[in-house]
Automatic annotation (TrEMBL):
InterPro entries: PAP2/HPO_sf (IPR036938), V-haloperoxidase (IPR052559). Residues 33-54 are annotated as: Disordered. This is Phosphatidic acid phosphatase type 2/haloperoxidase domain-containing protein. Keywords: Signal. Transmembrane segments: none annotated. The keyword Transmembrane helix does not apply. CDD domains: PAP2_haloperoxidase.
């Protein structure tokens, strides 16, 4: 279960970041979703980050969601992103239902113009979490009481709470019977090229249902399924395996210390914290912050679904199996090493596609679209190593995610690169419909 704990810690809402320009950057889209930070600073108190339009309620409740999901669901690899998407879409709908400015997510309800968007955000997150995790009700109720204590009592607060609950119930109903947790078998046929449980735990396929769950944005899990991985006898396959053998091993590797650090850094990231940090540093208001979380989390969730769909469909073996059994693959350019071990513990699911890389591509494309710039200004702390890295541009993050999984010895470069491209295609398509500025 070590594998599960490591991935679960990946609070990777990854991206969360972006620059202060909130343009879609798509043909026919408005040039800007609102005034930039400098303009807001000069426009008066409603945009200074204080009072009703402060993002604090959204940030607080997304942190509460992260902690609650970890404690109550103990999410297996990939599940965390599904849960975060549920909460952040409810919060987003609650906020933009009051504030306007952006298109709601699969909804068209509006709140009274006098409602408190902060109260709506808190009530929406509280209701979704309480519904799915009734055991956490006392802690969630106390947290809601604390948030509402910072909002003046009266009709605005009451209207906000009522609308937030309405937004939450819409998401709860929307996601009912979506396939979460369903039994999805993956028969193991231990022939060359086919996935089978890997050492040291030899665990069965983890959370296979993710590849069949109803997506948040896509029309179906297989909508962006890529073509097949390289054939076992191909030169590309041999090249992938040689790189892993030389750079991904636990011992005797050609990795530099910096490459080893990168591999370990990406095991678990505090990306929800990075979202909060970015929103604060760039002066985002409550609507912009809710949009940032919803766009990031739904992109992550659908990227996981797309990656798991490919894993189920192609079922390719992991590097540790491929290298140890290379004498069975029929490729004269590969060499077996029965004792090879990867730097990182191999997650319990197939190689192609890489979940991390697919999420990285989706996140960065979603953020650059929503924010109108490739400069994501991302500061992310690794839960694994404690190090914080600053990613100025989206391509830097995508590059490091791809490299990290190879240097960790757990994914082929092809699984990473195709995953990253799949994630980008998914997000580019989604941006045409979701989280757009209102006319």
């Amino acid at each position: 279960m070590r594998n599960r704990r490591a991935w679960s810690a990946t609070r990777t809402v990854v991206a969360g970041l972006a620059c202060g320009v909130l343009a879609l950057g798509l043909p026919g889209a408005p040039a800007s979703a609102g005034p930039g930070p400098a303009a807001r600073a000069a426009s008066g108190p409603e945009y200074t980050g204080q009072g009703e339009r402060s993002p604090s309620a959204v940030i607080e409740w997304m942190r509460t969601a992260d902690a609650t999901i970890e404690a109550e669901a103990r999410p297996t690899p990939g599940e965390l992103f599904i849960w975060q998407a549920y909460v952040s879409t409810a919060v987003y709908n609650a906020v933009v239902g009051v504030e306007g400015r952006f298109t709601p997510y699969k909804w068209d309800e509006r709140a009274p113009g006098t409602a408190s968007s902060a109260a709506a955000a808190a009530a929406a997150a509280h209701q979704v979490l309480r519904h799915h995790f009734p055991g956490a009700a006392p802690r969630l109720d106390a947290a809601l009481t604390g948030t509402l204590a910072t909002i003046p009592d009266g009709e605005a607060e009451d209207q906000g709470v009522a609308f937030g609950k309405l937004a939450a119930h819409h998401i709860i109903d929307l996601r009912r019977d979506d396939g979460r947790g369903a039994s999805v078998p993956f028969p193991v046929h231990p022939r060359p090229g086919v996935w089978r449980p890997t050492p040291p735990g030899h665990e069965p396929f983890t959370s296979a249902w993710i590849g069949r769950v109803r997506p948040l944005l896509m029309d179906s899990p297989h909508q962006f399924r890529p073509g097949p991985p390289p054939a076992l006898r191909s030169a590309r396959y041999a090249k992938d395996l040689a790189e892993l053998a030389h750079y991904g091993g636990r011992t005797g590797s050609l990795r530099s210390p910096e490459q080893t650090e990168t591999a370990r850094y990406f095991v678990a990231l505090d990306l929800q914290g990075a979202l909060a940090d970015h929103a604060g540093r760039h002066g985002f208001d409550i609507a912009e912050t809710a949009r940032l979380y919803a766009a990031a989390n739904t992109a992550q969730a659908d990227a996981v679904i797309a990656a798991w769909d490919a894993k189920l469909h192609y079922g390719t073996w992991r590097p540790v199996t491929a290298i140890r059994e290379a004498d069975t693959d029929g490729n004269p350019a590969t060499r077996a090493d029965r004792h090879w071990e990867p730097l990182l513990v191999t997650p319990a699911h197939p190689d192609y596609l890489s979940g991390h890389a697919t999420m990285g591509g989706a996140l960065m494309r979603m953020l650059t679209g929503v924010l109108g710039t490739s400069r994501v200004d991302l500061r992310i702390r690794s839960i694994t190593t404690g190090a914080t890295r600053h990613y100025r541009d989206a391509h830097e993050y995508e590059r490091d995610v791809v490299d990290a999984r190879v240097w960790g010895g757990i994914h082929t470069r092809t699984a990473d690169e195709v995953g990253s491209d799949t994630g980008r295609r998914l997000a580019a398509w989604a941006l045409r419909t979701y989280f757009r500025p209102l006319p």
